[in-house]
Design brief:
30% of the residues lie in helices and 17% in strands. The chain has 243 residues and is an alpha/beta fold.
């Protein structure tokens, strides 16, 4: 696990975009795993900027998003499908046929999750998975649990995750209680992992993920076992680290 600490969110976001830029330059047909939430927005803005400056192309890139809420249509402004197109895909030259996002409206959730794993396998696996981090240490929507999850599956969201995500909705009652997410096994199967975290409210989760015991009660701690994991943090999120 390699840890990089930056002065602030903007500096971290630019460094993350540079990391992805260099990765794509070395492999123009890379398969990327992408996150949503507030943390990666700065990175997406920097990547869009690089594209508009004709420094990078996404036309041969394939993407798989980490997760999606249950029962939110693609056109819903709070769906992760809408988020990705609004904050990234609509502004770059990616082939829409190469974009893969779980459907939260497919009532056959097991079939949807299995098909997603099959698509990842057919694509040759994910070369670079980019992750955010929940305040309770979740990655994707893999919540604290008694065991590490397997492949893509349906999960009931914890109340603290619902509360944290309610800032994107009119009120907490509108936040879906279930989601579909790549499991821990799916994430650990990715060839490289880049985790981004910013803000003091992530400091406890970062300390546990980096220095604590490996436990499903803090899902991100499993990344200590990954052979190629990079953490990019701002000073606030890294403030409790002893190293």
């Amino acid at each position: 696990m390699n840890i990089h600490i930056y002065n602030d969110y903007d500096e971290m976001s630019k460094a993350a975009a540079d990391y992805v830029y260099n990765f794509i330059k070395s492999k123009p047909n890379a398969v990327l795993g992408l996150p949503t939430g507030s943390t990666p927005i700065g990175m997406y803005k920097e990547l869009i900027k690089l594209y508009k400056e004709n420094k990078i192309s996404f036309k041969d890139i394939t993407t798989f998003n980490l997760d999606e809420y249950e029962n939110l249509d693609e056109s819903n402004v709070n769906s992760y499908h809408y988020f990705m197109f609004d904050n990234c895909f609509n502004h770059i030259d990616i082939d829409k046929e190469n974009i893969n996002i779980l459907s939260g409206t497919n009532e056959d959730y097991e079939k949807e999750c299995k098909a997603y794993e099959d698509k990842i396998e057919k694509a040759g696996g994910i070369d670079l998975m980019i992750l955010g981090l929940g305040i309770n240490g979740h990655v994707g929507f893999n919540e604290p649990s008694d065991y590490f999850s397997g492949e893509t599956y349906r999960i009931k969201l914890h109340e603290d995750t619902i509360e944290a995500n309610s800032r994107f909705f009119d009120n907490v009652d509108e936040v879906p209680r279930y989601a579909l997410t790549m499991g821990i096994k799916s994430i650990m199967n990715c060839k490289e992992i880049l985790l981004l975290a910013g803000g003091g409210n992530k400091a406890n989760a970062i300390k546990g993920a980096v220095e604590g015991p490996i436990t499903p009660q803090l899902p991100a701690s499993v990344l200590q076992l990954h052979s190629s994991a990079v953490f990019m943090l701002d000073n606030e999120s890294a403030k409790l680290l002893s190293k």
